[in-house]
Design goal:
9 strands; 211 residues; binds S-adenosyl-L-homocysteine; seven-stranded mixed β-sheet; two-stranded antiparallel ribbon
Length: 211
């Protein structure tokens, strides 16, 4: 495939997501804007616009487009919101978030240093002003002001760690898969309130574990 063919495949994917999902138009526009094929390893490029996860090396995966759409929609982002992503992977979801909130507003942490490095270079090359931290998300961006939202793309066993919740402002939202690796993870949206969080369940999901 060359670029126009990728662009057509991407439009077809977005048309399909629009039919299947009830998500905000801004989310679909963001997905239409990001070249997913540039985020997957060369041998997988032909599959970049199929709605499924793909391997990206180091036993990790890029999430399926519909999951990215649903999670992004649940975050309820507006331009100018500052977002904390846990688990950069290849950087695709960070780029989708950046399309919505704008340059300089996405802060993402990746545990595997090689993935963090590749994602940083790739986002840079594609013109996304995203800050990538290499290391455990629990230690990332401690000096930053609190975030409007956090998007967790790996599954913490037994709830979102305090270190992540603490980084989100009161009234802010956290979307995360929560649970173990036995296939019983739930996608939850937490709203941070004074001293507590409100929890909504958004169905069963399957993500790689948070380390
Ligand atoms: N957001 C990605 C999906 C990444 S998969 C996308 O656009 O498709 C989840 C990622 O979380 C993996 O790359 C994994 O290495 C990372 N991860 C796991 N535990 C982590 C932790 N404690 N801190 C930061 N990243 C972590």
């Amino acid at each position: 495939m060359d670029d126009p063919e990728y662009a057509q495949a991407r439009r077809d994917l977005v048309a399909d997501l629009r039919r299947r999902l009830d998500v905000d138009a801004s989310v679909l526009s963001a997905i239409e804007a990001v070249p997913r094929h540039a985020f997957v390893p060369e041998p997988r490029r032909q599959s970049a616009y199929e709605d499924r996860p793909l391997p990206i090396g180091h036993d990790q995966t890029i999430s399926a487009p519909h999951i990215v759409a649903i999670m992004t929609d649940l975050l309820g982002l507006e331009r100018g919101d500052r977002v904390f992503e846990v688990g950069t992977g290849c950087g695709y979801h960070a780029a989708v978030l950046a399309e919505i909130v704008g340059p300089g507003n996405v802060f993402t942490a990746e545990y595997v240093p090689e993935l963090a490095g590749t994602a940083r270079d790739r986002l840079d090359r594609l013109g996304y002003d995203v800050t990538v931290y290499a290391g455990d998300a629990r230690d990332a961006f401690r000096d930053e002001d609190p975030f409007a939202a956090a998007s967790v793309t790996c599954a913490p066993d037994g709830g979102v760690p305090e270190a992540i919740v603490d980084r989100v402002e009161t009234g802010g939202r956290i979307v995360a898969p929560v649970g173990d690796q036995t296939g019983r993870q739930r996608l939850v949206r937490l709203t941070v309130r004074e001293g507590e969080t409100e929890r909504e369940d958004h169905g069963g999901v399957r993500f790689v574990p948070m380390r």
